[in-house]
Amino acid sequence: MHVDFLPDIILGNIFSYLSLQDLRNSSLVCKRWYSILNDEDNDVWRWHCIRKLTEEVLSSDLLSSTPTYKTKLKAFHHAWNPEDCSRNIYIKPNGFTIHRNPVAQSTDAVRGKIGFSHGRHAWEVIWEGPLGTVAVVGIATKEATLQTHGYIALLGSDDQSWGWNLVDNHLLHNGDSQGNYPMLNNAPKYQVGERIRVILDCDDNTLAFERNYEFLGVAFRGLPEKLLYPSVSAVYGHTEVSMVYLGPPLDG
What we know:
- Pathway: Protein modification; protein ubiquitination.
- The chain is elongated and about 65 Å long.
- Helix 4 runs parallel beside helix 6 (69-77).
- The chain is an alpha+beta fold.
- It has helices spanning 8-15, 20-26, 31-38, 43-52, 55-58, 69-77; strands at residues 80-85, 89-91, 97-100, 106-112, 120-127, 135-140, 147-149, 161-165, 170-173, 176-180, 195-201, 206-211, 214-221, 229-234, 240-247.
């Protein structure tokens, strides 16, 4: 039987065994294949999710901001990088959450798997354990340090990283405070479990944040035109931080 006469359900079953690169290429073959693969919540993407993601994370609230199987899969491929973190950090089996081991006099950081140099990108960070004296969320280049002695704001301590310290609401870059953030009188402090949305605009070279869906304003301008990675740095033992990539931010 010619492939054109195969029912959609059979084509979908075949597609579920292809790699993501092959699926991307397949979507360009014809309108019918594009239509099947453009359905982000069909069995093709469901089977890929089941193979890559744990049942625990698929049934949890962690991925509630990624409504389709395809967006959940994309979030997984953008999650924390187990090969690009401090030796005192490990990635939990869910693939989205780091755990910092209780090592004294150390500050530890992690980067996401994929960096960005063009387009607009958003991701959520959820601090699921105590903040300690310093807890910084932001971005870093590949050159930024991922571990140092003592308890410091590691993210933002050099010219290769930019961060927001959730403990004292200071912006940090190149070792200096860039002022308070958000620019509000008596701005509330971060509460453990709140979702911080990070918005990186590589076209406008800016970094901004939202908290509980409230836009807090642009935090950094004039970012360099190089690969920038989601990043956090932490000091508290047993603290855990999750990151979920969302894709292009929704305006308004």
